Amino acid sequence: MKTNQKIRLTTKDHRIMRFIEDFRVVGTGQIWKLFYNNISLRNCQRRLRMLVDAGKVNRFRASISSEYLYCLDVGKIKQIEHSLKRVDFYIACKEKKLVDFVPEFQFAGVRCDAYFEVWQDGVVYPAFLEVQRSVGFKLSKYERLYISMDWKNKWEHFPLVVLVADKKVKVKTRVSGVRYVILDWDNIDINILLEKTKTDAFQTQSQGFFE
Questions:
Q1: Residue range 162-175: average pLDDT?
Q2: 93-145 confidence digits (pLDDT tens)
Q3: How far apart are the C-alpha atoms of 193 and 77, rounded to whole Å?
Q4: By residue range, what is the domain housing residue 189?
Q5: Where are the alpha helices (DSSP H) in 4-130?
Q6: Inter-residue contact 131 to 113 (CB < 8 Å)
Q7: Residue 46: Cβ-neighbour burial (10 angstroms; 0-12, 13-18, 19+)
Q8: Residues 95, 180 within the same domain
Q9: How many domains are contained in the chain?
């Protein structure tokens, strides 16, 4: 990191740095969509460069021809494509009235890529996110969570398991209460998710989980 330039940080700068911290690695285009969509991409790039020069964030390229990716510590970055796809999913959800999104979510011994809630027609839809880059995916940890009934303290209905996969994935569950939906890696369609929640009655009134 360069630290030879001082800048006055804005509220937006702080939001961007917090977002990078939460999501680990974020692409230039993703930051532009989320925080600078009312200005040109070039102006967005200029401000991000100022944050880098001031030592507030780090940046690197996955390849010579790719855009800059932003993080706090390059040495700790792993699974770049996986992390960037999670941001893509967040952006897609945000357009559908996203209520909450918690990366690296853990509950009762179960860890997932994120927990999120989408608001639609006065109803909150809770879900777990799994970003998968291989054909092997098992729902066993969610089956164990469902059977334990620990989730009853937080949700009225068991959250939907949303799998974003880059290959055709065969998923089976022996527990009828564990429902899931698979979304295409290259074409994340949140409408498919919302239709699934409606038909399978996943809707729940907010239980104050984040209070």
A1: 84
A2: 887 777 899 999 999 999 999 999 988 778 888 899 999 877 667 899 999 99
A3: 29
A4: 82-199
A5: 11-23, 28-35, 41-53, 80-94
A6: yes
A7: exposed
A8: yes
A9: 2
